[in-house]
Design goal:
The structure holds two protein chains of two kinds.
Chain A lengths: L3 H5 L4 H9 L3 H9 L5 H8 L7 H16 L2 E9 L26 H14 L3 E5 L9 H11 L5 E5 L5 H7 L4 E5 L7 H7 L8 H5 L1 H7 L4 E5 L7 H18 L4 E5 L18 H14 L4 E4 L5 H7 L6 E3 L27 H10 L3 E3 L13
Parallel strand pairs in A: 1-2, 1-8, 1-9, 2-3, 3-4, 4-5, 5-6, 6-7, 7-8
Chain B lengths: L1 E3 L2 E3 L3 E4 L6 H11 L3 E5 L12 H4 L7 E5 L6 H15 L3 E4 L12 H13 L3 E6 L3 H10 L5 E2 L13 H10 L5 E2 L6 H9 L4 E4 L1 H4 L4 H21 L21
Parallel strand pairs in B: 3-4, 3-10, 4-5, 6-7, 7-8, 9-10
Antiparallel strand pairs in B: 1-2
The chains are: A alpha/beta, B alpha/beta.
Chain lengths: 374, 255
C-alpha cells in the first residue's frame, strides 16, 4: 500500500531540524508575503527566526481565520469511556504500569454521563479511551455509537488506532471524526516513550490516517504531544502529514491539535518546554500555512491563554471537561488522565466567547446528513 | 420583480446566515439587507426542536423566505435525503443544492449536482444548485428541471469577486432560468458588476458577516444590487476604446 510512510521515510529528523533552525528573517518575510505557502514557508514560520514577527503573524492568522470560519467558535466536550490500557506510555496517567483503578463505563453509566453533558448544552462529543483491545474493541464502540447517535449531532473518537475494516464498520453508526495523534514523529524517541503494548508499533500508528482516508471518514485530527521532542520539527512533520493527506484524501476534513504535556501523578517532565509565545507562533504558523484546517484548543491551557487565543486562529474549543471515565456523574473523584488548567464551566466559556465578539456554536453537523443507520 | 418558480422577489440580494458573531447581529444585518431569500445550513439547525432554534427564530419575518441548503453532503444520494429532511422540518420545497465533497475549497461536484437536480425536480422540489460557472452544465441543469442556476464568481468565501466573468456572461446570455451569482462576491462593487452584466440576483454571506459593520455593509450591498440592476435595465453605454474623429480605413469610399 502506498502510504505516508513512503514519504516520511525520505526525511531525516536531524537534517529537517537543522533546516528549520537555519531559516532566516528573509525566509520568514517571504513566507508572510506569499499567498500560497509551501512546506518550506511553514518551516520558516515555526523557526526561531519568526519570533520577532509574532504580532504580524497573529494579524494575518486572525484575518485568514475570520475569512474562512467567520466569527464563530465550535464547542465540544470529551467523554472518557474507559481508562483500561495495555500500553505503557511514559507521559500518560492511564499507562499500564500506573496503579490506578481501571474502569470501562457500562451503557447505563454512559447515559448518566450523557445526561450531564447534554444539560451543559453540548451536541458535539469526543469519545476517549485507552487501548485495551480485549475490553474496549470495535463491538464496544458500535454499541456506544448506537447509544449516543440519537443524542449528539456530531461524534468524534480518540481511541486506539484501528484496522480499515473496523473504521468501515463504525462510520455507518454515526462516527464522523477520528483523532489519532502520532505523539512524536521522532521514531527512536517514540520507542522510548512507548516501550510496551500495541502502541509500540510506530508505523501502524503513522499509517492510521491513511486507513481513515480509505474508510471515507468525514474528518480526521492530527497532532503531536508537545514536550516529547523538538516541537518545531515534530510540528513540521505534522504539517507534512496534513499536506499529504489533503491531496490524497481530498474528501476528508482535517483538524490539528497541539497539546502540551501536562502533569499527572507520577508522570514525566517535558523534555522540551514550549512557552506561550511559542504556542501562539505555532497556532499562527499552522493557520497561515493552511487556511482551511480546524485548530482545536483544550482545557489543558490556562484561562488567560484561552481567552486570548480564540481570536488568533482557533476554531474549536472544549470546556467543562473531565478526563476520567465517569468524571461527569458516575465516579467524579476517580483519577484523571491529566490535570486540566481551565476549570470554567461551558456556560462561562460561552460567555467569554460572546464577550470577545464571537458566537459559540453548539451544533454544526447532523448525523442524518450522512444517513447514519442509528 | 424577479420571479423564480412560484415566488416573486422585490429584492435581488439573497443572503446567508453563517459566520456572524451573534444571531442578533445576523438578524439586524439581514433586515437591513432587505433580503427576501435567506439560506440556512441544515446542519446548523436543531431539527428535533426547530421551533426553539435560535437561528430560525430570528428569521421569522413575513418577507423572509427560508432557503435551506445541503452543505455538508458529499453526493446526490445524501443531498436528496437532506432535501427531504429540510422539506419535512422547515416546510419548504425550496432547496439550495450544495454538493461539495471537497471540504477544503468547497468546490461543487457537477456530476452529483446534475444527478440530484434531476431527482429532486421529479420529487417536486424547487432546486437552485450551486455550481461552477460552466455554461454547458447550466444547460444540462435546465433540461433536468432546475428552477435557477447559481454559478460561482470565485471560490466560496474568498471575497475575490467575479473571476469567472467571461463564463458568467455566456451563462447569462443563453439561460432560460434565472442566474444567481453565488460565491466569491467580496464587495458591493462586485455585486453591482454582477447585476450590470445581467445576473438576476446575487447571494452574499461572508462579505457581510465578516465585515467591520455587518448592518452597514448589508445596506451597502442592498444599494449596490439596486444600482447594478437599474444600470442593466437602463442599458450601459458601450465602452469606447478610441476617438472616432476620422475613418482612415474607409474614407476612400467617400472620395
Amino acid at each position: 500500500m502506498n502510504s505516508f510512510k513512503d514519504i516520511f521515510e525520505t526525511y531525516n529528523w536531524d537534517e529537517t531540524k537543522a533546516s528549520i533552525y537555519a531559516k532566516t528573517s528573509d525566509d520568514v518575510e517571504r513566507a508572510l508575503a506569499s499567498e500560497i505557502r509551501t512546506l518550506e514557508d511553514f518551516k520558516a514560520l515555526v523557526s526561531p527566526a519568526a519570533a520577532p514577527y509574532l504580532e504580524q503573524m497573529a494579524a494575518i492568522s486572525q484575518q485568514l481565520t475570520l475569512k474562512r470560519f467567520g466569527k464563530v467558535i465550535q464547542m465540544y466536550i470529551p467523554l472518557y469511556l474507559s481508562n483500561e490500557c495495555k500500553n505503557i506510555c511514559t507521559y500518560c496517567g492511564f499507562s499500564y504500569d500506573n496503579k490506578v483503578k481501571r474502569k470501562t463505563l457500562s451503557p447505563m453509566e454512559i447515559m448518566q454521563e450523557v445526561s450531564v453533558i447534554k444539560n451543559m448544552g453540548y451536541d458535539h462529543v469526543l469519545l476517549v479511551t485507552g487501548e485495551d483491545n480485549e475490553n474496549v474493541h470495535v463491538d464496544y464502540f458500535k454499541k456506544v455509537l448506537d447509544l449516543l447517535c440519537p443524542h449528539f449531532a456530531h461524534i468524534s473518537m480518540e481511541v486506539q488506532p484501528l484496522d480499515l475494516e473496523d473504521y468501515q464498520q463504525l462510520t455507518p453508526y454515526g462516527l464522523n471524526t477520528v483523532l489519532v495523534y502520532q505523539e512524536t514523529y521522532h521514531k527512536e524517541d517514540y520507542k522510548k516513550h512507548h516501550p510496551k503494548g500495541k502502541k509500540t508499533n510506530f508505523d501502524y500508528r503513522l499509517e492510521t490516517p491513511d486507513r481513515l482516508g480509505q474508510a471515507g471518514i468525514h474528518k480526521m485530527g492530527l497532532g503531536v504531544l508537545i514536550g516529547l521532542e523538538d516541537w518545531r520539527t515534530d510540528c513540521f512533520f505534522t504539517a507534512l502529514h496534513l499536506n499529504y493527506l489533503e491531496k490524497k484524501y481530498w474528501q476528508s476534513k482535517y483538524s490539528l491539535s497541539f497539546p502540551r504535556l501536562r502533569p499527572f501523578s507520577g508522570g514525566l517532565e517535558p523534555k522540551v518546554e514550549m512557552n506561550n509565545r511559542e504556542l501562539v507562533q505555532l497556532i499562527c504558523a499552522y493557520r497561515i500555512f493552511n487556511q482551511e484546517v480546524e485548530l482545536s484548543i483544550s482545557t489543558r491551557e490556562s484561562p488567560n491563554f484561552r481567552n486570548n487565543i480564540i481570536k488568533l486562529g482557533i476554531t474549536n474549543i472544549s470546556a467543562g471537561s473531565k478526563t476520567n471515565p465517569g468524571g461527569y456523574a458516575v465516579e467524579r473523584e476517580s483519577l484523571e488522565q491529566f490535570e486540566i488548567s481551565d476549570e470554567r464551566s461551558p456556560e462561562q466559556i460561552a460567555q467569554m466567547i460572546i464577550e470577545q465578539g464571537y458566537e459559540p456554536v453548539w451544533k454544526d453537523w447532523d448525523n442524518s446528513l450522512a444517513q447514519s443507520i442509528c | 420583480m424577479l420571479t423564480i418558480a412560484d415566488k416573486t422577489f422585490k429584492s435581488r440580494l439573497f443572503t446567508g446566515t453563517g459566520k456572524f458573531s451573534s444571531s442578533i447581529l445576523m438578524e439586524e444585518a439581514l433586515l437591513a439587507s432587505g433580503s427576501e431569500l435567506v439560506t440556512v445550513a441544515l446542519k446548523r439547525v436543531d431539527m428535533k426542536n426547530n421551533d426553539q432554534d435560535d437561528l430560525l427564530m430570528r428569521l421569522k419575518y413575513p418577507h423572509i423566505n427560508l432557503f435551506p441548503n445541503t452543505s455538508g453532503v458529499r453526493n446526490a444520494k445524501e443531498a436528496v435525503f437532506a432535501a427531504q429532511l429540510a422539506r419535512e422540518t422547515l416546510e419548504t420545497n425550496w432547496i439550495k443544492l450544495e454538493i461539495h465533497p471537497d471540504p477544503k475549497y468547497l468546490m461543487p461536484d457537477p456530476i452529483e449536482t446534475l444527478k440530484a437536480t434531476e431527482e429532486l425536480a421529479k420529487l417536486g422540489f424547487i432546486v437552485l444548485p450551486y455550481i461552477h460557472a460552466d455554461p454547458v452544465l447550466c444547460k444540462r441543469l435546465e433540461d433536468a428541471g432546475t428552477s435557477a442556476v447559481m454559478p460561482l464568481g470565485s471560490p466560496i468565501g474568498s471575497n475575490k469577486g467575479l473571476k469567472t466573468i467571461d463564463f458568467l456572461e455566456i451563462i447569462i446570455s443563453q439561460s432560460n432560468v434565472p442566474v444567481i451569482v453565488d460565491a466569491g462576491i467580496g464587495s458591493p462593487s462586485d455585486a453591482a458588476w454582477a447585476m450590470e452584466i445581467g445576473a438576476d440576483a446575487v447571494l452574499v454571506n461572508t462579505a457581510i458577516a465578516v465585515s467591520g459593520n455587518p448592518v452597514q455593509m448589508a445596506k451597502a450591498f442592498k444599494m449596490a444590487v439596486e444600482a447594478g440592476r437599474m444600470a442593466y435595465e437602463a442599458k450601459l453605454a458601450l465602452p469606447a476604446t478610441h476617438a472616432v474623429a476620422s475613418s482612415p480605413l474607409t474614407c476612400f469610399l467617400d472620395e
